[in-house]
Specification:
mainly alpha; 5 domains; six-stranded antiparallel β-sheet; 24 helices; 6 strands; extended
Length: 546
């Protein structure tokens, strides 16, 4: 019999067996056709590819659940090729405005993608905490013509503890402050908090009216209420099931985790399996990614061969240890580094990458062209190309730190104050080109003054340590003299007193050592500050000659 004919025969036998178990022929055929398609697309591996294995060892329900999970898993591989709009409720949609309430993480990330809102970050869990855990309704106001974005956090539906219930948990929110603020917080596109009046001035919209509209959608039977209720019920059920999880994967739990998209529960599920040495690499990638959002450093240690997406998510979940584990276990390649946020690199990480031979020219250029990492490169001992450093400066539009970044680049990287940088600072800070050097001199003078103040404080700290050393030296000398008097005496009381005096002498000596170490450390800091002051003063002279 040819292989193809053998496979066809296997599917026929499986179909007959499952139908004989009381499942409708139509449903069996649908599941088997989907299973065959997943196998052909290499979405199923190992023994699980063999339909005979399922027919002999598993029930039809287990096969159907596995197919559902694999379909959900395979769909995540298409995430880069399709925008995940998610579920949302429109409160307003006209030529100027789209005002929506996101009902899931995908919708929050899709509609908030060009903002700095924490609830729109795929690698963080803030949307779930706001919407599902605390019933805080998020209203995204998107201006179609200008691209401006504002977010309203509607707190009207948070749970308020009963003042008469002594066992009630205290609210995590300042209820008095919330009441005074109108039971809402409003944020602009850069995540700056603004009040109701400023919101109306900037948008022409009435925040209270929008909150009233959202309230209508949270009534029983309405979309927002249904979504919150469904998710909370599912989460409670999953918590109980995970608590009593055995030593094997549970397809029902995995299907539930894919629905609620809760990172903490996903982590608890993975943790329980990992502690029982269950292979977790075959778990749907979406669940693994959810778990890494909660504890990326732990998840990555249990995986044998994680794909690049899980490694990236582990690192992006604010877990420095995950980055170190990925480097140590060779889970990361040079090309992967170009996809990781520059904020995840520090001098220690860069040195580890260099020891593994992962810092090729392209990676060095990427790190040199980002304000944060170019200084980390410099600290790690790498020479930063001034042309790349200039690119990093020209990308920085943060009004708060742009002057200090320019100054640090001039000082540490020896970056010249080019006309392009002057024009950029002028544009971002809305000042004249001729005022840029004066602004930088003022900024440097403030830095020098701060360093000088630190030196004064350090001198006082050193003097205090020296005074304390003299006190402990005097105490130690007196204690040593008493010990000398008691040595050789054998009465129990004298022996006990001798032991206590030796302990006291040891403590005094130890304290003197600690104080001297403090003096040495602070003295070194003073020397570093003095050196920096000289460098900054030299930079002021250079600016005046520029």
């Amino acid at each position: 019999m040819r292989i193809k004919e053998f496979i066809v025969e296997g599917y026929k036998e499986a179909e007959q067996k499952f139908v004989s178990q009381g499942v409708s022929a139509e449903e069996v055929k649908k599941v088997l056709d989907t299973f065959r398609d997943l196998v052909n697309r290499n979405q199923i591996q190992g023994n699980e590819r063999n339909i005979d294995w399922w027919a002999k060892n598993k029930s039809f329900q287990e096969l159907a659940e596995e197919v559902k999970l694999k379909l959900a898993d395979s769909s995540t591989t298409q995430i880069k090729r399709s925008k995940k709009v998610g579920r949302s409720v429109n409160l307003l949609d006209n030529d100027n405005w789209l005002v929506v309430v996101p009902l899931d993480k995908d919708a929050s990330c899709f509609h908030g993608k060009n903002s700095d809102w924490c609830t729109a970050k795929a690698s963080q869990q803030y949307f779930e905490q706001y919407f599902y855990d605390n019933s805080i309704i998020l209203i995204y106001c998107l201006n179609k013509k200008t691209g401006g974005m504002w977010a309203i956090a509607n707190y009207r539906h948070i749970e308020i503890p009963d003042p008469d219930d002594e066992d009630a948990e205290e609210s995590p929110y300042d209820l008095t402050e919330l009441e005074q603020s109108g039971w809402a917080e409003i944020f602009d596109q850069q995540d700056n908090s603004i009040d109701f009046a400023k919101f109306k001035q900037q948008t022409g919209l009435d925040a209270v009216q929008l909150m009233d509209l959202s309230d209508q959608k949270i009534k029983p039977g309405e979309p927002i209420h249904q979504r919150i209720t469904t998710i909370k019920t599912s989460i409670d059920a999953l918590k109980r099931k995970i608590q009593y999880l055995g030593n094997a994967r549970n397809l029902e739990i995995e299907h539930g985790l894919l629905d609620v998209e809760n990172s903490e529960l996903s982590y608890q599920y993975i943790r329980n399996l990992g502690k029982n040495n269950v292979e977790i690499d075959k778990i749907p990638i979406k669940i693994l990614i959810l778990a890494t959002r909660h504890r990326g450093d732990t998840i990555i240690t249990w995986l044998r061969n994680p794909n690049s997406k899980i490694v990236k998510q582990s690192i992006e979940s604010n877990q420095t240890n995950a980055f170190k584990v990925a480097i140590e276990r060779d889970f990361i390649r040079s090309e992967d580094l170009l996809k990781i946020s520059s904020y995840k690199f520090d001098a220690t990480i860069i040195k580890m990458l260099d020891n593994k031979g992962l810092l090729n020219k392209e990676v060095i250029k990427y790190l040199s062209s980002e304000a944060v990492t170019m200084f980390a490169l410099n600290e790690a001992g790498f020479e930063v190309n001034p042309a790349y450093a200039e690119q990093a400066i020209l990308k920085n539009r943060n009004t708060a730190n742009l002057p200090s970044v320019v100054i640090k680049a001039m000082l540490k990287i020896n970056l010249p104050l080019t006309p392009a940088i002057v024009a950029h600072v002028s544009d971002v800070l809305k000042i004249k080109n001729t005022d840029v050097k004066r602004l930088l001199r003022i900024e440097i003078s403030d830095i020098v003054a701060s360093l000088s103040d630190s030196i004064v404080r350090f001198d006082k700290r050193i003097q205090k340590a020296k005074d304390d050393i003299e006190i402990f030296k005097s105490r130690a000398e007196k204690t040593a003299a008493k010990i000398k008097e008691l040595e050789g005496r054998k009465s129990p009381n004298q022996q006990y007193e001798l032991l206590m005096l030796k302990t006291e002498l040891s403590m005094s000596t130890s304290r003197i050592t600690q104080l001297q170490e403090t003096i040495d450390r602070v003295t070194k800091q003073i020397e570093e500050n003095q050196k920096e002051i000289e460098e900054y003063n030299s930079l002021i002279s250079k600016l005046e000659k520029h």
